Amino acid sequence: MIEKIKEMENVTKSIKEKILNHNGYIRVITHHDPDGLSSGGILAKMLMRSNKLFHLTVVEHLSDNVIQKLAKENEVNKPLFIFADMGSGQIDNIIENNFNAIILDHHPPIIKESFVNENIIQLNPHIFGVDGSKELTASGVCYLVAREFGYYDLSSLAIVGIIGDMQYRPLLGLNKFIVNEAREHRYVKIVSDLIYNIYDVEIHKSIAYCTKPYIPELASEVKAFKFLKDIGIDPNKKRFDDSDRKKFLSAIIFKYPKIENLIIDRYLINHKVNDAMLLSEMLNAVGRSGLFAIGIGICLEDDECIKKGYEILWEYKKNLVNELKNVKLKKLNNIYYFEGKKGMIGIIASILVDDKPVIGYHIEGDLAKFSARGNRELVERGLDLSIAMAVAKEFGGTGGGHNVASGAVVPKDKVKDFLNRVDEIIGEQLKK
User: Fold this and answer.
1) What is the DSSP letter of 275?
2) What's the rounded mean pLDDT across residues 250-267?
3) How far apart are the C-alpha atoms of 405 and 147, rounded to whole Å?
4) Cα–Cα distances in Å, from 11 out to 14, 103, 115, 122, 182?
5) CA dihedral 178, 375, 427, 325 (to 10 degrees)
6) Which residues of 145-262 form beta strands (DSSP E)?
7) Could you tell me whether strands 120-123 and 330-331 are parallel, antiparallel, or unpaired per DSSP bridges?
8) pTM for this prediction
């Protein structure tokens, strides 16, 4: 991977120069998921340390509406725009509006060049033959710029993005390089542990509200409490010790045979929320709850934001488990689908995916918004959800993303037709 880093250095050096030479303020636009919020945290810390004036905004989509608002701002103030975790798929619109811009993205690019024109530089792993769906996240792309400034400690937030974008099982390519570099500089320590030990709450609550994995038979505080009590473990302890762990794994195998999913590598990072998976879950909760500023504040280690983040996380986890209990999966030939609540459909789809992709949607005004999730096994069989969801254009909408996770928006009266077309496309992909 060192050769890939060296290939990218020409671009990261140019981006650093572009940032340092810009005299006006800098306009950062990033996504609301954990990878996007981690990207925003990296860029905010980098720009503050560089004494740069900036304004950061978090959005769900880089829609035409968002672009038009930024275009009006551009006419007045002529900022330097930095787009993180977005932009490569909307680059035509960025060019058309004559933005002075840096794009730090890992989604498949429309233009496969780093130096797009005299005003736009794009750092995207796909341009260098690196798969952005499994080998490098947007926060990883942002970190490659930050390390050009010498800010190796920001690798911690890149690790949070790697976990948030589900690119850590296994670690591949530049993701592995970033984690190894963080270990080399002692910004992360990796230990094997039960997933329930990351939360620092009573273990019966950790079990009841855990969704990675989701165990329906223990998905309530009463059930989890009784299970632990019956096998001789204090349900109110905040941590499994070695003895508890052996008892627990011996007993849980009868309710959940895939016990290997309960043992994780914990990434202990140099952050006030020192477990990267816990921090990722917290960012997901605040982002999905629409509290974007709190998410950035958590990345910047603001104590009040972190306190609020814990509250939101547990409220979100309780709502998520309740929603999981109520989900009614429907089946077509090649997909499962369901209608759910805003902010939860993506995570629910990722929890429920198994032998077929799962697509969740919710209705918002006149639009239906979709989140589709697959897994590595399905991708290896030919699944590419970015292509399947891009068919939304045929129905007057938009769609795209990664092969394993993607989204779309279509008019609400096109839901059935859209799902049927996606089902056809996925069927063709999985037959190959």
Assistant:
1) B
2) 93
3) 28
4) 5, 11, 8, 8, 22
5) -140
6) 188-194
7) unpaired
8) 0.89
Q: What is the dihedral of CA 67, 71, 77, 81, to 10 degrees?
A: 40
Element (H, E) at 337: strand 336-339
Strands 367-373 and 405-411: antiparallel
Taking only the tens place, the pLDDT of each residue in 71-119 is: 999 999 999 999 999 999 999 999 999 999 999 999 999 999 999 999 9
Beta carbons within 10 angstroms of residue 260's beta carbon: 7
Cα 336 to Cα 41, 158, 211, 311, 408, distances in angstroms: 35, 32, 19, 32, 16
Residue 62: how many other CB atoms lie within 10 Å: 22
Could you tell me the two tokens for 196? 């329930």
The DSSP H or E segment spanning 410 is strand 405-411
Q: What phi, psi does 100 have (nearest 5°)?
A: -90, 110
Q: Which among 120, 119, 139, 126 has a CA at the least distance from the CA of 43?
A: 139
* DSSP state for residue 355 in the 8-state scheme: S
Neighbours of 258 (CB within 10 A): 10
The label of the residue with tokens 């800098």 reads 26
Tens of pLDDT, residue by residue over 337-364, are: 999 988 889 989 999 998 999 999 999 9
DSSP 108: P
Q: Name the residue type at position 40.
A: G
Higher pLDDT, 400 or 226: 226
Whether the ω angle into residue 357 lies within 30 degrees of 0, i.e. cis, is no
Backbone angles phi, psi at 79, to 5 degrees: -75, 170
Whether the pLDDT of residue 1 is over 80: the answer is no
